Amino acid sequence: MRIQATLIGFSAILMWSFLALFTAASGRMPPFQLSAVCFAIGSLPGLVTFAFRPQRLRLLKQSVSVWFIGVAGLFGYHFLYFTALRNAPAAEAGLIAYLWPLLIVVGSALLPGERLRWYHVAGAIAGLCGTMLIIGKNGFAFDPRYAFGYAMAFLCAFTWSGYSLLTRRHEAVSTDVVTGFCLATSVLSLFCHLLLETTVWPVAATEWLAVVGLGLFPVGAAFYAWDYGVKNGDIQILGAGSYAAPLLSTLILVIFGFAQTTLTLALACLLITGGAVLAARDMVRRKPATQQAE
């Protein structure tokens, strides 16, 4: 059960790896507008489920704390991420924001029933080093002028890691509630768009397909899979394994001709893959009897 849930959680990481490709193909839609549209699309699977099984609507009746965690996690992360990118160079802001997998691994020590091992932390740090090679391929230049953007990126990292860890503490809450989180995030993103941006709609059919793809997978199904994974799977493996997302994203861009293969990319692949395997040592070496008992 735990291994299956971990694999479901990892499917979210695979879907997030298509985020860059779909975003690049979606045209020039501003970020908050894109977020509003994609989260609206991402809520559709849940709405369809509710339409055929209206009795599940009662699962949306949750405490204020659950709703706050969910909406702050989904909307807060994207709001802070977009704000960081607007106020700091993308490479530096992206690297700081991608501290969240390491924070999840370290923070998991505070969760009931979890035990942090040295190889969990070592695997996450190896993944962070690999991510640094990918994001900072042209080097880093942390400039005090962009302190506000860096601060937003740090808050972004703490927001997503905090959301993931607190989600684990509310493991009894049904994943159906993610539909409500997506809808609320869509509405709040629309508000930010109307306040801060100029509306730009896709022109080509391929751009619309990319937007729909974003909404159905990286900004849709991925959040349902992540919710289920962190609640029922191995959150330490998922945290360390999350560094695979920027690697897979870069490899996908290489396949589709948006990037080139380099020695740096190969080294990053080695670090991230090795780190993930190291962090997953318990699961890889688990005996069949243990698997059956779970």
Structure keywords:
294 residues; mainly alpha; 16 helices; 74% helix; 0% strand; globular; disordered C terminus
Question: How would you sum up this structure, described in words?
Answer:
The structure is a single chain. With 294 residues, the protein is an all-alpha fold. The chain has one domain (2-293). It has 16 helices and no strands. Helix 1 packs antiparallel against helix 11 and helix 5 runs parallel beside helix 10 (178-196). The longest helix has 28 residues, at 205-232. It is globular and about 50 Å long. The N and C termini lie close together (6 Å). The model is unreliable at 287-294 (pLDDT under 50).
Number of helices: 16
Q: Report low-confidence residues grouped into runs of 5 or more.
A: 287-294
Number of domains: 1
Strand % is under 5%
Overall outline? globular
Structure described in brief:
With 294 residues, this protein is mainly alpha-helical.
List the helices and strands and how they pair.
Elements: H1 2-16, H2 19-25, H3 31-42, H4 44-52, H5 64-87, H6 90-97, H7 100-107, H8 118-135, H9 147-169, H10 178-196, H11 205-232, H12 235-241, H13 244-255, H14 263-279, H15 281-284, H16 288-293
Helix pairs in contact: 1-11, 1-12, 1-13, 2-11, 3-10, 3-11, 5-6, 5-9, 5-10, 6-9, 7-8, 7-9, 7-12, 8-12, 8-13, 8-14, 9-11, 12-14
